[in-house]
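U., I forgot to send this yesterday:
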Amino acid sequence: MIHPIPPGTRDVLPDEMRELRQLTETLRARFEGAGYGEISTPTMEYEDVLRRGDERAAGAGYRLFDEHGQVLVLRPDMTIPIARVVATRYQDEEPPFRLCYFGNAFREVDRRSGQAHEFLQTGIELIGMPEPQGDAEVVALAIEALSDAGLTRHRLGLGDGSLYRTLLAELEVPEEERMPLLEALSRRDLVDVAIGVDRLGLASSASDLLTRLPTLRGGPEVLELGKDEPVAPAVENLRACYELLAERGVADRVIFDLGLVRELGYYTGAVFEVYDPAVGFALGGGGRYDDLVGRFGRELPACGLALDVQRVHVALTAEEREA
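Result:
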């Protein structure tokens, strides 16, 4: 008799568990060696708290009720809980705060997508350091940690979550039309983006810009194509971040991606996505969220990046198979 488990979850048997344990210890050693202290937060959060951080983050979670009838949510990520911790538990401490974590997260996803509902997540949060220094530190540390773990082909996509939003505002695109375009970008559905832009009825130059910008991907040369107003400040920050990454010797791992948009709404600047050509999915991502900690009571710039540990493990296995 087969006893099923919920879709999007899986059992981890001893051989794989040993490998995952070794992987997490390697990542932890690099994070702690860089001064990132490990933190743990509850698996459950009050829905109202998550909504304060990001409306969609709470709506996407699994809900249950406590004995008083208050709605609890299984955490969909670790960034919002850590923002809550820093704003409330470190009120009188001087930033920056360097924190890392390892824990399970839970997301409600389309069953046909092949994505996990429950996954082991690790990541780093650098709170209190502005761009571009903070962005470069987080990106470099993630790249170095994955190299320590044994990956040799990983790359990091670097974009800016404000680029497309800035253009939509500058071109006076109605508010109700902006979110569908951003959601299409987050899905990498450039056909849907083009259809949405065409529906707006903009001048040909504006339509061309909105459809061309998401296709700009490559080395630092792509920044030349986005250096004009109104996106010049974001492009200059990306350029400054790249120069800092070059000083740390990891700039060759970076791919600029001006169409990169993360799905959560709290990102305010640089955004990241981690890839490995040995597999067909992202290993993780993150970005700058300068407004998030302030929603819990303390204004601080912040930046972070999260990795799906099991996806990293799959990428390691795939690289070994191809070697």
